[in-house]
Amino acid sequence: MSTASYLKPDGSDFDRFLYATVGEDRNGQDVTVLSTLARLGLDPWKEASELAMLSRDAAHDRLSSALSKVRDIPALLREHAAVAGELTRLLPEASSLRASRITETGEAPWMTISGGRIFAVAMILLILAQIFFLGGSETGE
Description:
By secondary structure, this protein is mostly helical. It has helices spanning 15-18, 33-39, 44-53, 56-67, 74-88, 115-135; strands at 21-24, 30-32.
């Protein structure tokens, strides 16, 4: 199963993680993980999903590396590893993630029926309709 298939459309599996505060920016505003990841050009839900699939140590290392690149949050400049440690504890366990029906393309599985299958079903229905209408018109004489 792909990593993205673990995402809930509402992001609820990762809310505790994504909406956690990482510190204040230079303007005194609280900054969340979601905002921090977006500032780094990362998709926050995809990143959270990928981090949750890793071991705690690997997730910590990856998140710490990302947080070390943030320059406008003074606390992260000094303590990115400690903040990453606290944040990785907020990630859900990979085994507890609720699998979503949304695929990487954003379509539900029933919407991913190939054109060939649709054509085959249509042909079968057409043949059955012909048998029904043409076969039933004979009087048996």
